[in-house]
Amino acid sequence: MRDQCGLLKNYWYAACLSKELKALPIRREIMEMPIVLWRAQDGAVTALLDRCCHRNAPLSKGTIKDDCIVCPYHSWKYNAEGCCVEIPSEGPNQQRSSKSIIEKFPLIERDGLVWVWMGKNVPPDQEPFAMPLGDSSGWHHYYMTTLFDNDVTNLVENFMDVPHTISVHKGWFRSERKIAVPTTIERTEHSVEIAYNQKNDSIGFTEKLLNPKGLPMVHTDKFFMPNLTRVDYIFGDYERALIITSTCTPISAYKTIVYTLISYKLGWFNAVAKIILPFYTRKVIDQDVWIMEIQGKNLQKFKKAEFMSTAVDTMHLYIESLRQWAEEGGANSRPRPIKKNIDFWI
Q: What pTM value is reported for the model?
């Protein structure tokens, strides 16, 4: 998958939560590439291809010794650069071969996530997306990790798709109101941004908890190449806010792990939100897990199926155009920036 995704590999992908990395190595799979990660005694993190170059045993099943990873099969030892530094069976007079080097992945640990650069022979030319943790007092946040049986394109479209909420999340997020919502959709070279221009907008029964004063709500959805969405609900002039940011890491063609950051600033309700919001957001995300699973199964069954789109699906088409351009290696003209106004009904 890594070799067939064009420019999509030349980005940072979240491999795990920082708190998951402790004394033992862990295995993650990104674009069908098995990766082993571990933390050294000084806190530094290493990511290598999860295979011993001797007999291809998974290093993630081994141990950490002197900040090196030791293969479980014949105890070959590799340092943080992926170089074999010890072969016990060779005795004291050992000679190293340039072939006994494991691929090392560039990584950055930031915002509670460990990000791995998947570009092959292409050095990082950017930094990972800055997750909105909140830069002032009153902000709280937590991560949710979710495994989906679908691909990145369908997932990011789902996370930004308002019309599906009255069906999939009925009673939990939105309910049918039979009103038109004026919307502005803009595609840039690297993003798709949506502004909802509906006065007195609300997000279901949680409105009374999140926005008890009835402050004006500004709702925006943003997609950033290649795999990240940010959904903002801002009440008043940031007096209160709920921001949902999801970064999608492809494991294989129809399996994706999503790290979702819930950031909120809700005044006195923060104390209660610490208990209520994790339950509520997990319920809503699990509903998305279900719809993405049944869609994914059908897409695999009908391998050449095409989507039928209307004006309401403009957002989907813009996202697909950016990801398809990158997947094809950027050989054709980059999708041009464009802005369009549409109405859809909820």
A: 0.93
